[in-house]
């Protein structure tokens, strides 16, 4: 994967690595998504959706995320809606665990496409 950024106060709490896979932009996140890291996450996702130059095809890989709060979910939903307005797609990859359970519990409040693996995500939408 290509570019990388770390955000948070003091010790980096969230790392974002960006690359490409089968025509998709893949943002791989590691660490915690919370009130301290959401502003940079929103900026990253906004840039990725805007810089795509057409119909954004973005996968957000949460496989190495250890914590995600409601603000993090809001950032993902906002980027998803922005991509959809541009005729694109944003989907999320997250394996079973605490973050997946959180997304499942919050399902009535969002329409994110959630996949188990990157392979599942790059398949037919």
From TrEMBL:
Locate the STAS domain: which residues? 14-125
Cleaved signal peptide residues: none
**Pfam families from the UniProt entry:** STAS
Q: Which Gene3D superfamilies match?
A: STAS domain
SUPFAM superfamilies the record matches: SpoIIaa-like
Q: Which domain of life is it from?
A: Bacteria
Q: Which PROSITE patterns does the entry mention?
A: STAS
Q: What is this protein called?
A: STAS domain-containing protein
User: What does the record give as the organism's lineage?
Assistant: Bacteria, Bacillati, Actinomycetota, Actinomycetes, Kitasatosporales
